Every structure is written in structure tokens, then in C-alpha cells.
Amino acid sequence: MSPTQARTFHAVADAGSFTGAAKALHVSQPTVTTQIKELEQLYDVELFLRHARGVSLTPIGQELLKIVRRIDASQKDAVAFLLAAQGLHTGHLRLGAYGGTHDVIRLLAEFNRRYPEPEVNITFANSMTLQEALLNHDLDVAVFTRSESSLEFYTLPYRHHTRQVAIIGKQHPWRNRKSVRVEELSEQVLLIREPGSEARRAMEKVIKQAGSPPKKIIQIGSREGVLAAVAEGIGVSTIFDEGLVPQQVVIKVPIVGAEVSTKVDVVCLAERKNTRIIAAFFQIAEELRPASR
To answer: Are 145 and 262 contacting, i.e. CB atoms less than 8 angstroms apart?
Structure first.
């Protein structure tokens, strides 16, 4: 059964007559009649009952119509897919991300593999700044940790972080420890992120669980700054265990008694979730998000 025959059969079934199908297909009535006759003869079946008012489907024709309609729907889906892909030959995706760069870089790598032509910019900032940038339309999508949900955003839960670990310099007295107790953090100079950072909120929870104020707190306004200060031996900080750190300069040490969890979301404005380039990024995030979330 050729695509032309399928299209003609579908048109006759919908119109209920050869004349109506011919008008819908912009061809002559004899052309339609010939195509249906050839189809019936080819497979030795009767698809239509002819009568004075037009035609009606036989039982075989009714079953065939179900199949042809599925084929037609699949063809329309294919066209929609190709049009969407065509829309990603150009464009500009503005991404935002928190300090855990491994999440956004993994997503970006797959996005770039599938859609190599659109331009992509990445902005790294704390959670509050990323949220404001989305609201101001300065970003299209952000990958970050949020403690609250909002109806203004469309959110795909991507990953759960469940354990905080300490990061120390390679010369720190804890360097050979397999773990430290959360209470021991009170004896240290703690390096903490700026307000608005999810990393700061998490560390403040750890400090509260330690039971007493730390020896000293130093606020540093970026993840890179915290890592550099830890590497220089200025103090100790904490991160979620899934976070990547340069192992040649800092060491991770599990914290016993620190129970802090957060999550990483892929977020856009709810009103923009069906924009082609944004929807394509979310589709990749849906496919790649860890099974445990």
C-alpha cells in the first residue's frame, strides 16, 4: 500500500464519496476511483460499499481506516519533530547554574551533542541570583538548588543531595581522618558562602546541629573562593558529597551527625516551558536525571 493510496483511501473514508475525496485532494474523481479500485484489486479485498449517495466502509475498510489514521498521526508527529529540530538550527540558550558545575555541564554536553548550532551562555551564581534572573528574563533555564517552590516556575526535580561532608586542606590535622563528628566543627574556622546561597543555608543547618558557635566564621562570596581558602589552610567548609572538588588541593571528610538534605532542580518560567529551545533542554534533563533523583 503506497502513501498515495493510503492518503486517497483516508480521504474517501472521511468524505464518504469519491467526489468529496477528489475535491479534498485537488485531483479528478476518476483518479480517486482508479486508485481505490487498484488498491482493492491488488489485495483482493472490498474496502467500500458503493451506493447512490456515495460509499460506506466495509468491515475490512473500517479496520484499515484505524491503521491508516495511526499512520497519519505518526506522520504528523514526525513533521512536528522536524519542525522543532529545524527551530534549533539557530537560537540562543542562556543557562544559569549554581556551584555544582557537574550537573549543568553534563546536561550541556548532551544538549550540544544533539543541537550543535544554537549559541549557549552559562552564568554561575547563587540560588537567589539565579531565581531573580529567571524572573527578569535574563536567563532561559537554571540548574540550581531551591528551598521553596513557586507557581511562577516550572520545575523538574533533577537530583537529591543527602549528605554534607567537610572539605579541608591537604595539611589540615584531619587529613588522615575517615570521618569527623559534627560537634568538632565548632572548634574550627568555618568558611561560609554569601547570603542567598543554598550552600550557606545548608552550612548554617550543619552549624546549628554542631550545638555551639564555631571558633570563627569567614564569609566568602563564591565557591571558587571557598575552595581556594580551604586549600590555603584558612579554614574548613562543607559541601554536599555529590559536589566535585579538585582533589589535588582539598580533601573530603564525612561528617557524622550532620543531617542536611537539599535538591537540584532544572527551572524555567512556567510561561516559557514550551519554548522550543527550553523544551529541548528539559527533555534532555528528564532523560539524564539520576534514577534515585
So the answer is: yes
Q: Considering only CA atoms, which of 257, 256, 223 is closest in space to residue 237?
A: 223
In the chain, which segments carry CATH 3.40.190.10? 92-160+263-288, 163-260
Which residue shows C-alpha cell 460499499?
49
- Please say if the pLDDT value at position 293 is more than 60: no
**Which of the four pLDDT bands, split at 50, 70 and 90, describes residue 253?**
very high
Average pLDDT over residues 206-235: 90
If 0-12 CB within 10 Å is exposed, 13-18 middle and 19+ buried, where does residue 291 land? Answer: exposed
Stretch 108-124: mean pLDDT, rounded? 91
**3-class SS of residue 109:** helix
Q: Is 63 helix (H, G, I), strand (E, B) or coil?
A: helix
Domain 163-260 belongs in CATH node 3.40.50.11600 = no
Question: Is 3-87 CATH 1.10.10.10?
Answer: yes
92-160+263-288 has CATH 3.40.190.10 classification: yes
Give 3-state DSSP helix, strand, coil % of the chain, rounded to 5: 45, 25, 30
Confidence (pTM)? 0.57
Q: Name the strands in the sheet holding 237-240, side by side, starting at the edge strand that comes first in the sequence.
A: 180-181, 250-256, 164-169, 237-240
* 273: DSSP letter: T
- Span 78-83, average pLDDT: 67
Torsion of CA 283, 264, 267, 205, to 10 degrees: 170
Among 34, 35, 13, residue whose Cα is nearest residue 24? 13
